[in-house]
Amino acid sequence: xxxxxxxxxxxxxxxxxxxxxxxxxxxxxxxxxxxxxxxxxxxxxxxxxxxxxxxxxxxxxxxxxxxxxxxxxxxxxxxxxxxxxxxxxxxxxxxxxxxxxxxxxxxxxxxxxxxxxxxxxxxxxxxxxxxxxxxxxxxxxxxxxxxxxxxxxxxxxxxxxxxxxxxxxxxxxxxxxxxxxxxxxxxxxxxxxxxxxxxxxxxxxxxxxxxxxxxxxxxxxxxxxxxxxxxxxxxxxxxxxxxxxxxxxxxxxxxxxxxxxxxxxxxxxxxxxxxxxxxxxxxxxxxxxxxxxxxxxxxxxxxxxxxxxxxxxxxxxxxxxxxxxxxxxxxxxxxxxxxxxxxxxxxxxxxxxxxxxxxxxxxxxxxxxxxxxxxx
Length: 376
Description:
The protein is of the alpha/beta class. It folds into 2 domains: 296 residues, Thiolase/Chalcone synthase (Peroxisomal Thiolase, Chain A, domain 1); 28 residues. The chain is built from 11 helices and 13 strands. The strands form 4 sheets. Strands 1-7-6-4-5 form a 5-stranded mixed β-sheet, sandwiched between helices. Strands 8-13-12-11 form a 4-stranded mixed β-sheet, with helices on both faces. The longest helix has 29 residues. The termini are far apart.
């Protein structure tokens, strides 16, 4: 019998700096009333130079490992979803693997925009269900403040930075991840876009007046009305589809945790599903749209607020650029019982020592390799 994939750990990290709507009104022509009435957002967290994706993802991961009481060496796979990687390669997931000391883990990044965490969680659960992995770390992390044009009030008001992580573990006990749905429609790819294609000209050249096609505006661009119409159409539909795959009905669901993009979009999903507000968890007012990080951050807060209990059926649902959308249905388990206690501070220390030793050994190895192979 295939093992079940249970969510046994969770953690989040958000930057210390808070940017309120009043702060934004000093930068662009806007106001708290204008932003909040259209989006439900009142503030968002903005990363400092020291709070990059690797740092935030590692902090969220260490907290998830602490909750699950899982050692980094037990992780088989790390899937990191992000729309704002620090670099194209190496994968941010590989740098997190080193930072947390996951010595046995494979690691890769997944780019599905704001749907990324749903996609990553479904992939992780399927890896466990197939027997390919026993313990998977799933991360959503964003520094979207680096991508937005702070002179464009249509986009800069929406996004915030942060990270969230889940630990998924295999068990013969029924429950955990029950179903997943992933969908896409590339015909709407131009509706929400951050275009970076520098392969056609040298990296140091930023503009090409003779060829307008090569002039790349290095900011996120969005057709807000079309994205709104798309999201309000698919969120409820994909939630129902995931429930049907799990052989559940709406009345079996304790709570829906949607991607925190816009309060009006979430309200539309409530209306479509005919569910009361208390069956949805919403925190977009305090974090803005953190893309791949929004669902795990909301889950951590829902747990802290006592909105989720062991045995609850939860629908995670999201949408994003691509166009992409998806949902997961999970029977909540919580940590497996264990007597040991994993401590993040100790994990940070051992991971740092391990990384230093590996770098040193690699330099020693290259030194002697070079002496043996002088003619190469």
